[in-house]
UniProtKB/TrEMBL annotation:
It holds the Pfam family YjgF_endoribonc. Residues 9-149 form the Endoribonuclease L-PSP/chorismate mutase-like domain. It comes from Sphingomonas taxi. This is Endoribonuclease. SUPFAM superfamilies: YjgF-like. InterPro entries: Endoribo_LPSP/chorism_mut-like (IPR013813), RutC-like_sf (IPR035959).
Amino acid sequence: MTTHVDRKLEELGLSLPEAAAPVAAYVPVVEAGGLLHLSGQLPFKAGQLVTGRLGDGVSLEDGQEAAKLCGLMIVAQVKKYLGGDLSRVKRIVKLGVFVNSAADFTDQPKVANGASELMVALFGDAGKHARSAVGVPVLPLGAAVEVDAIVELA
């Protein structure tokens, strides 16, 4: 089944990664009340985790790319959970973006735009969402960025 989102991915020259398996005692997606709650997703590029700290060796542009990679993993998790049918996505409700940040790094919202802009590019107006962007001193496995999401289903 090819959906509008699948076509947009192709137009943008993007592909979804394999939905990552949990690394601890949780599930990637929980459905409740017509909403999907997605656990935090990490950025993988060519099968390798993107690690490091923004403001301390990782550039803003690399952070934005890491956030975009997290966004692609979110879409991959949703697609897997929905049996491939992304047309059931009614709205991206909220993204929570956690940025592995040096103490003086304050551009977390700019990093988060990597994931936010991807959602709008893929889902149009339905991709516009509420968001938080938070700097943290460390993330699991040393990841540069982690993003969780709430998605409304049609």
